[in-house]
Design brief:
Number of strands: 32
Subcellular location: Membrane
InterPro entries: ANF_lig-bd_rcpt, GABAb_receptor_plant_PBP1, Glu/Gly-bd, Ionotropic_Glu_rcpt, Iontro_rcpt_C, Iontropic_Glu_rcpt_pln, Peripla_BP_I
Structural class: alpha/beta
Distance between the termini: 146 Å
Helix content: 40-55%
Strand content: 15-25%
Family: Belongs to the glutamate-gated ion channel (TC 1.A.10.1) family.
Keywords: Disulfide bond, Glycoprotein, Ion channel, Ion transport, Ligand-gated ion channel, Membrane, Receptor, Signal, Transmembrane, Transmembrane helix, Transport
Membrane topology: Multi-pass membrane protein
Length: about 950
Amino acid sequence: MGSVHLAALLLCAFVFATGTTADNQNGTGIPARPAEVRIGALFTFDSVIGKAVRPAVELAVAHVNADPSILRGTKLSVLMQDTNCSGFVGTIEALQLLAKDVVAVLGPQSSAVAHVICHAVNELHVPLISFAATDPTLSSLEYPYFVRATQSDYYQMGAIASIISQYQWKQVIAIYVDDDYGRGGVMALGDALAKRKCKIAYKAKLPPGAANTTVEDILMQVNEMESRVYVIHVNPDSGLNVFRAAKSLGMMNSGYVWIATDWLSAVIDSSVYGNPDMMELTQGVLVLRQHVPDSDIQKALLSKWNNLTRNGNAYSMRAYDSVWLVAHAVERFLSEGNAISFSADPNLVAAKGSSLQLDSLRIFNNGNKLLEKVWSVNFSGVSGPVQFSVDRSLIYPAYDILNIGGTGLRTIGYWSNFSGLSVVAPENLNSSALNSSTNNVQLHSVIWPGQISEKPRGWEFSYHGKPMRIGVPLRTSYKEFVMQDDGPDGVKGFAVDVFKAAISLLPYPVSCNFVLFGDGLKNPSYSDLVQKVSENYFDAAIGDIAIVTNRTRLVDFTQPYIESGLIIVAPAKEVESNAWAFLKPFTFQMWCVLGVIFLFVGAVVWVLEHRTNTEFRGPPRQQIMTVCWFSFSTMFFAHRENTVSALGRFVLLIWLFVVLIINSSYTASLTSLLTVQELTSGIQGLDSLISSSSAIGYQVGSFSRNYLVDELNIPESRLVPLNSPSDYARALEQGSGNGGVAAIIDELPYVEIFLSKYCKFKTVGQVFTKSGWGFAFPRDSPLAEDLSTAILTLSENGNLQRIHDEWLSGTECSADNNGDVSNSLSLSSFWGLFLICGLACLLALVIFFLRIFCQYSRYSSEVEVQFPEPQIVNRPARLTTIKSLISFVDKKEEEVKNVLKKRPNGSQHPSIGDSQHPSMGNTATEEQSTLPT
């Protein structure tokens, strides 16, 4: 019986199909303008949007026909069909319109109907211009003849995501009608939130036309959840039922956040003077409304608009502009000589024998050309600029952000795709460059549900009075961190006290029930504990839980409350002193350099003092011994030779300062080596431990085992599980070859406690992983973020350190944490002193030899004048000069000065010892003056 009614209904829909319109031509061969152009309008007359749209469309058609500058000589007529809020009826009505040879269809207001009709207009090449279908999926390439003359929900959900991010909420619950309109909008919301590191925690689907009891049941489920931020995206005609049910359930009180899409603003704007009951239901709600900028066109039509309809909204303005959009497109279409003609669809002719009479639907021959004119339209309408971008969307998408309070709406800001959130109208920002003063402005204050002005936290505990189940590891060792207790909480320790102190700083009460995890025989697996949190068996886990990569994939951790990391512990032995311990203060290179520089300084002083100081003269053997004695005696400041020259004293002063520093450093280093007990170990570091075949110990339950196997590729056969500090000590004492271990790898806090009790062991190298300990919570838990802030507060006010000092004693053996480091002093510690000493010696030698060269020049001239040399012996001039220079350098300073004082015309004569010329045969005197003395 149902199939009969359906066939009859479809038959009635097509029996009234209109005939073909003939193409009239004028005498020039150019198609004449038709006397009438028909368009269709498809919407629900008795609906919130329909009541506002119908008079707007009628007014727009009248204005178009009254305007002589457009559609000259052609009348625009509109055929309206009522969809009666039914998808099926809407489809039938749409097919009836298409059978009447309309060149375009306005509507539908329903996205669900639009999805069906798009297939029909694609087949018939008729542009479908919707002023209310906002489903983002309608913009796909599957529907080329769909023209959206309003804003897509893609932009509206972007505005909502910006609001949620602005108030730093992380999770929302979407309440939506389960049809194409609702699903498409929520999908766009999820994508927009993901870009801002937020998400939809739950999607509450309402059946279309759901009864009040169904709505209440769904809201009761929603109220059981943690999030208190609700985004409601439903139909205008039944949307208020959601708020009515929410108010009866107490969900419109303080602590809740309600954000409604533009359906609610359409309902409020369509009410005549504002419905008090409606405003009472929605107090504190944030509402979006499509932004309509003020314009002269809008002001000119305002009086006529108010006289015609009392329930206008943004959709009615979009419908008004949609009529003008079609009119401008048809005008350009006709002006270019295109004819309006229709032809039979071959695909439908094949079904001519069908009782549905589908052959009455005909193709608009030039529909693609009219569609091109639609996309290229550009004019200023009542709703603002009407122009399409390359992605087939209206330009300048923008929304008003409204807050319902009292008996009206208050604008708290704007959102546009161009500028984001702002308190400045988008059209003002579009005409000027953005700057920080306009783009980074907070929204105006909001009155939230419950008449509060403070921003709601956005979430609540979903336990309804039940305390949180907190998992605590039941440790059998290192109980300073967490242990079982007979008190009310059942646990105590460093980690427990930190958690309690952080909880006490939260601005809201948190009730906790600590549940021990483990068998009490050995330390439990912390990875299993974290897994229990991810499975919601525990609401959180506290204790000495290391924050490592594998665990962060399962749960969220708080800020670390103590630094940690893996480090090596190895056995140590005392090094006994030997007979050559006195050589250890300096390295071998240092000793060699010291010997060389001692001899070098002694030689420099001998050169500077030889001519003036009798203590530095004598036979060559004696002079060599003098240089060696003087050099090394300065180490003990026991040199007996005095320096008389200024340059010699200068060099000696610098050298004695260097010797003082060297002696002091040697004494300090030797004292340290002989009095401090040095600990050494056969393990040099992580690399040597990995390359060896020795056994390695690790703590039961720690992540170190997985790290050693997975990251360091150490065979499991080398790993030995250990449970307590006594097990550590016993295994280290036994050694790898005797059933023990060569070293233990464990986390730094455990090692510090172990070394405070067993000083026979030491750490080797540095911490080779960087991590910390934190508290584990389920993914996206807002409590983890709040506790992180509380832990930072504990660290800043010093309470975290106080708790640490209370539970964890100081480590007595931690001074050896750096491992084997040589205490011998190297050359790098003294090269600056040696450089200063060397430069001083070099400077003194340069001054000394410059003075020698000047004296030698004057001395040679005086000798040639007083005692001319007969040219008897023929020897090379260079050898003679070098020999003469060496002989001069060896002379005493006093002898040289005596020669330089004599003049050729003076009365003075040389004395017996030095006045006779060497050519006169005074052999004794010559030898005395030339041999070194």
